[in-house]
């Protein structure tokens, strides 16, 4: 394999790359592509390119995607007002149909875009290869679910065929009813179930910042809990951090929060000594 031919010129240094290819050779990496990153097509293309490169370099990648902004757009078109409880969308029978369609549509977009770069990918969602079984989050939220079982074998069979599983944050409950799942929650449940080496949460922030708003490259879960306590970490970042802690306390070696807006942020996170966002370890 000629690494030079596969790696982009503005990617991480080649000498570091070969070392990390060796390190991740028999490991699983789950990458969650956040809904807020759908705003620009160039950010999306950068993500697709990076996933394709990782796959061509022989790494086993599992993609989980969000879709919040796309869902909002569709609901607006249909003149449907969303209600939120503690930041989670209340999802009735009308909304869940729109959510399901939008997420499956986005899933197909990712799969097709990877294929255009000669990377075979397989869709996983409620209408095809469903792997997530859920229980309802709460009565008030309607069709919002939390994963209680992941079918690992379906994912592993796709990886054995040298393809990339692309998973929508949707699951099935009783009577095959579709439920919406928070994207980070779905990605974490999958990473925990598969005991992946890495879970990368791609988002539209730099990572975890200290009091002086400087990026922290690596941090332990104890230190992170202190930062929540002294309010260095606040509001919207707290649920994301709690998701990360859940992952590292349940079999995932480390979780990276990385800025999807940065060119090749995934490659720098996986293949360089410095990484590209914040790495959280147990």
Helix content: 40-55%
So what's the overall shape?
Answer: globular
Main β-sheet, in a few words?
8 strands, mixed
Low-confidence sequence ranges: none
Q: How many DSSP E strands?
A: 14
Q: Compute the CA-based radius of gyration.
A: 18 Å
Question: What is the element string, with H for helices and E for strands?
Answer: HHEHEHEEHEEEHEEEHEEHHEHE
- Portion in strands: 15-25%
Distance between the termini: 34 Å
Specify the structural class. alpha/beta
Q: Strand order within the widest sheet? A: 5-8-2-1-11-13-14-12
Counting H and I runs of at least 4 residues, what is the number of helices?
10
What's the mean pLDDT score? 95
Give keywords.
eight-stranded mixed sheet; 14 strands; globular; 10 helices; two-stranded antiparallel sheet; alpha/beta; 282 residues
Textual characterization of the structure:
- The protein is of the alpha/beta class.
- The protein is built from ten helices and 14 strands.
- The strands form four sheets. An eight-stranded mixed sheet has the order 5-8-2-1-11-13-14-12, with helices on both faces.
